[in-house]
Write a structure and sequence with these properties.
Helices cover 31% and strands 23% of the residues. It is an alpha/beta fold and 352 residues long. The protein has 2 domains: 158 residues, 3-Layer(aba) Sandwich (Rossmann fold), CATH 3.40.50.720; 178 residues, Dihydrodipicolinate Reductase, domain 2 (2-Layer Sandwich). A hairpin with a 2-residue loop joins strand 8 and strand 9. Helix 1 crosses helix 12 and helix 6 runs parallel beside helix 8. The longest helix is centred in the middle third of the chain and has 17 residues. The structure holds NADP nicotinamide-adenine-dinucleotide phosphate. NADP nicotinamide-adenine-dinucleotide phosphate binds next to helix 1, helix 3 and helix 12.
């Protein structure tokens, strides 16, 4: 292990998101996985025995023999990524932060805490400044909690950000078609989803409606002030393995046309691209001109699953403009954004 590498642990390492962390962190230039933790059902077993591995690449050789620990401070690492079940994530993540670990989480528990950043680096990198306030308020030393949004919110916010910056957004209506992997394993039963669409995903609409406002909000005077945009979400589960698709209509403060909107999206770049972070896609938003794109099977792996694809940009007769967004829900929508967040936090000195 070189002295520039950071030791990382994964909480919830046996779950759907935990497995993505393990897969994506293999050969990461800055982060080395040295600890894996899950429930007492898994603790004590070597990782390869504890996990039911469901990804299409082999378990990385470096972690096969690592014994799974309980999710308690004392793990041999400085940073933990959390893919914990939200039923238990809240207090476990707080205990790690209090014990001087940097906690970068996927779970919903701390996302809306006023002193916790809800981060997507291409959208609101400056919000990580709230960590100073969090450390002071909570009496943390070098520990802190940073979170990434819900999977469907990440794709939406990435597409909205350049539009909000250039034209201003007053209202958003979004209808999602969300992949099965978003429900974890075993998730939705096959008899429920085959030949079917489920028009309800528990708490998903509320998460999209509130998290989007925090993401598009302004960090000013040590506080995050939510955006005043109104968001209405309708969320559906569809028979797709990976890749959330979203049909979005927006009302704008300043008029534009199809080319203006496409150009704003296509040219969007953020700190990850400017800094050349290891997990940064070259183009965070890919705009497709074909009338039948994006599609989950074809577009979800764009830029290794880290790019969001937008297509079908056209005028909306009810609001102003409409378009379709596609993002990989367990890569850009979960573990991939968490890793990019950790990279950003390192460049901003929060992992020193
Ligand atoms: P999952 O497959 O059910 O995995 C849950 C993980 O939590 C497992 O490693 C499990 O360990 C561990 N766990 C459960 N109870 C525990 C306990 N009492 N103590 C310690 N560990 C415990 O869930 P998931 O789909 O990966 O989701 C994980 C989190 O990420 C959730 O908060 C979810 O909302 C969020 N998320 C998921 C997605 C997605 O696309 N799936 C996207 C964004 C965010 P054992 O194997 O030992 O039981």
């Amino acid at each position: 292990m070189s002295k520039n590498e950071i030791k990382v642990g994964i909480l919830g390492a046996t779950g759907a998101v935990g497995q993505r962390f393990v897969q994506l962190l293999e050969n990461h230039p800055w982060f080395r996985v040295t600890a894996l933790a899950a429930s007492e059902r898994s603790a004590g077993k070597p990782y390869s025995e504890a996990v039911t591995w469901r990804l299409d690449t082999p378990i990385p050789a470096a972690v096969v023999e690592i014994p799974v620990s309980l999710c308690e401070p004392g793990l041999d690492c400085d940073l933990v990524f959390s893919g914990l079940d939200s039923a238990v994530a809240g207090p476990i993540e707080a205990a790690f932060a209090a014990a001087d670990y940097a906690v970068v989480s996927n779970s919903k528990n701390h996302r809306m805490d006023e002193d916790v950043p809800l981060l997507v680096p291409e959208v609101n990198a400056d919000h990580c400044g709230i960590i100073d306030r969090q450390r002071k308020r909570r009496g943390y030393g070098r520990g802190f909690i940073a979170t990434n949004p819900n999977c469907s919110t990440i794709g939406l916010a990435m597409a909205l950000k350049p539009i909000a910056d250039r034209f201003g957004i007053t209202r958003v209506a979004v209808t999602t078609m969300q992949a099965l992997s978003g429900a974890g394993y075993p998730g939705v039963s096959s008899l429920e989803i085959l030949d079917n669409v489920l028009p309800y995903i528990g708490e998903e609409e509320e998460k999209m409606e509130r998290e989007t406002l925090k993401l598009l909000g302004r960090f000013h005077d040590g506080r995050i002030k939510n955006a005043r945009t109104v968001v209405s979400a309708q969320c559906n589960r569809v028979h797709v393995q990976d890749g959330h698709m979203e049909c979005v209509s927006v009302a704008l403060e300043n008029e534009t046309d199809v080319n203006g909107l496409a150009e704003a999206l296509r040219n969007h770049r953020g700190p990850p691209q400017e800094l050349g972070l290891p997990f940064a896609p070259r183009r965070p938003i890919i705009v497709r001109d074909e009338p039948d794109r994006p599609q989950p099977r074809i577009d979800r792996d764009a830029e290794n699953g880290m790019a969001v694809t937008v297509g079908r940009i056209r005028p909306c007769p009810v609001l102003d403009m409409k378009f379709v967004v596609l993002s990989h829900n367990t890569v850009r929508g979960a573990a991939g954004t968490a890793i990019l967040n950790a990279e950003l936090l390192r460049t901003r000195g929060f992992l020193d």
